[in-house]
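okkk here we go again. third time trying to get the zinc ion bound version out, last two times i messed up the smiles copy paste (missing a bracket lol). double checked this time i swear
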Amino acid sequence: MSPEVRRAFAAGDAAKLWRQYGFRSPEELVLEDVAWALGVAVMEGPLDSADARLVRRADRGIIRVNREIRQHGRKRFAIAHELGHWRLHAAISQLLACTKEDMLARYKESEPEAEANWFAAELLMPEDLYRPAIAGNAPNPDVINGLANRFLVTRTAAAVRFVELCKEHCVFVMCEKGRIKWWRCSKDIEGPLWIDGGTAVSPRTLAGRFFEGKIPEAETQCVGMCEWASKFPDYAEDAMEAIIPLGNTGAVIAMIWLE
Ligand SMILES: [Zn+2]
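finally!!
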């Protein structure tokens, strides 16, 4: 099966749960209840390096979520990710421990982890609800905060989903301690666009100025795409940039959209 087919299968399985239980809004999606109905108990507990772990024994399972995780949205994503493994990967392993990195994994990094993430994204932010919610909106901090609150997810998850589902060409860049950590972009520009991970954030970007302590939160500006990307489509020389500082973590999300 191609990645596209596997993605459609994983997302389709999550969408099936919404139909099966008749959910209409994210508040109605109580993950612990869904898990229980599927034969899985969810509990919090100590875990060394993982965000969550799934143990399977025949048709019963236990999801343990790391009790050190503070953010409600991150816990929800971890549970949804493990439910993805539960639904999709019975034949792969009876015990899976998933790290913070696994919750971000792409298909080429790990097929099962990417599938669990596709499942989790669709379960928490169903395409049918998310597309209308983002239509006509720029990915600025207000919009991303609103989406995170409405869908009960982290701002990171809300912003990545925005990039995945928006009609415009849009780029998400996670920056930490003045450096580019990881990025995602709209499907249409996946080939023509490249950003070098690990490099220093340019001081001519909003994110760069934020790290220098020069600007307040939540601004938007026009930026030269060459400040961010080593490769980008010709028409995208100038782009818009907004930043979303992630509290006291020292990390900043830069959202860049091509016009
Ligand atoms: Zn996993």
